[in-house]
Design brief:
Blueprint lengths: L2 E7 L6 H13 L4 E6 L14 H12 L5 E3 L12 H11 L3 E7 H6 L6 H7 L1 E5 L12 E4 L8 H9 L10 H9 L6
Helix pairs in contact: 2-7, 3-5
Length: 188
């Protein structure tokens, strides 16, 4: 049975923090692949700064280009409205016979008690939590934890830097930076 990691998010834009997290989990848990799963409308975030999913897919494709173990899973973009991980995982398990590992940052570990149908979800997938500065790994849920290098890059920080005309070099792949510039994304 294939072992597949799922890394969900808005990827607005995708950056090196996402890529390092995915690569570290891939390696640490000997996964076959990591699927980046952009969501339509996350239930826990505002979508005021969210660019169209076509742009996020294009940027994500550029970000993972050249890594055959990284794939894009579009399932949440196929549905309208809010995306709940439980509903997504039910569908993915119907489509595939893989063993799924859902990758979350420590910020989401603290938020798990509020996830939709969390008690059923933890029976479907194995969660893998990765450290994030200023967040705790402690939880009563059965989560595998792994340490990755502390990376404080965030998509919101990158969007803010772009609006302010500051450099984003070394925060995200050059191909993604070029795409953002050519398409005038996140400008004020």
């Amino acid at each position: 049975m294939r072992k597949v990691g799922i890394l969900g998010g808005t990827f607005n834009p995708p950056h090196y923090g996402h890529l390092i997290m995915a690569n570290e989990v891939l390696s640490s848990f000997d996964l076959d692949e990591v699927w980046f799963m952009p969501n339509q409308q996350p239930p826990h975030k505002s979508h005021a700064d969210l660019v169209h999913h076509t742009d996020r897919l294009n940027m994500l494709g550029l970000a993972i280009e050249g890594n055959e173990k990284f794939k894009i899973e579009r399932i949440e973009l196929e549905r309208e409205g809010r995306s709940f991980t439980y509903d997504t995982m039910v569908e993915l398990k119907e489509r595939h016979s893989h063993e799924f590992y859902f990758i979350i940052g420590a910020d989401m570990i603290e938020y798990l008690p509020k996830w939709y149908r969390i008690d059923e979800l933890i029976k479907m997938v194995q969660f893998i939590g990765v450290n994030r500065p200023a967040y705790c790994h402690e939880t009563s849920y059965p989560i595998l934890n792994t340490e990755i290098p502390d990376i404080t890059i965030s998509s919101s920080m990158i969007r803010k830097r772009i609006k302010e005309g500051k450099t984003t070099r070394y925060f995200l792949p050059d191909t993604v930076r070029t795409y953002i510039k050519e398409n005038h994304l996140y400008e004020s």
